[in-house]
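Final report, closing paragraph on structural work. Over the funding period we assembled a curated collection of sequence-structure pairs, and we close with a single example.
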Amino acid sequence: MPKPSERKRGRRPPRRSAPGAAPGRIEPPPGSPRPVIDAIAYDAHELAERRIADLAEIDELLASGKIVWINVAGLGDAKIIERLGAKFRLHPLSLEDVVHTHQRAKVEPYAEFTYFVARMAREHTFLDTEQFSLFLGKNFVVTFLEDPGDSFNPVRERLRGGNSHLRTGGAGYLAYALIDAVVDAYFPLIERFGERLDRLEDRVVSRPGRQSIGDIHEAKHELRALRRAIWPLREAINSLVRDPSELLDDETRVHLRDCYDHVVQIIDLVETYRELCADMSDLYLSSLSNRMNEVMKVLTVIATIFMPLIFISGVYGMNFQTDRSPWNMPELRWRYGYPFALSLMAAVALGMVGYFYRKGWLAAESGLAREREAPSGKGDQPIESPSRHTPNP
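Its predicted structure, as stored:
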């Protein structure tokens, strides 16, 4: 069974400001990579992509009048984050939340922009998430990620396609597309997790062991982390749908309602898998108990068979002298006394085995077999066991 330290290996602990620290301080997490800034500026007719080496290039993109998407991967440079905040007039408190990567999903509206933060799924040797921060303005979207690598390639491909509604939907629709990509990235991960639980359940039934119970606890640990990431996201997206904002039009809100439905589906799957993990713990204990019962049954049968044999051999081992009395073990002087004793023991043993077999005590599932062979009552209908597989979303 993996140790707790092994389960959390590779996961940075959440970093929080010291008690009483001044608000709005930008202190990147230790070990964060240096920011890599990518920019996409587009309208209905033209799209330009570039890797930002000098933040002055962002001013040129904003002056073009196009929708500008700035993606920052890495939080290791506080000065760059401060300069980006100054260019887009982002509030220091929201920038503080960007670098403090323990935030739960939420929405914070400001005068000139809306701040949205959520957890984005990523998978290493165990399920893990990273913080995804989004700033939505009138003609810009700025996203911050903890590390390089994201789920936004489908959005980039749609922007490059030219015929997508993304090119004409404005910054609000781009923000929706990015949030939807974050939500949809959970589905393939959860599907793989469901297949893993199915294999684990089969292994618990067929060959339960210490590794099985360790894997069950590991799955519970990952589902708790996933639940903490998903549950607040439902309320955050609902806030975008419900609360009035000039940055989101009615059509974008309709699409956000669909995104909200996807989050609800993910929550249902997570809760189903949590129940399955709880059932597997009980199944593991039942499997161990059944195996122990089988072992004890075999040992009991062997001991029961040998009890009369030991009695017979004990009687013949008393060695009474036959010259004292004709009733004192006459078989001791009989030519076939020893084969007779062995034959008697074999007959008793075979007789007991046959009796146990007729009673059904030697069959592993004799009770279940007798129930299946018993005639059903009038009007009885066979009951089909429900499938444990959750349908794919």
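The longest helix spans residues 250-316. The domain at 29-285 is CATH 3.30.460.20 (Beta Polymerase; domain 2). We thank the funder for supporting this effort.
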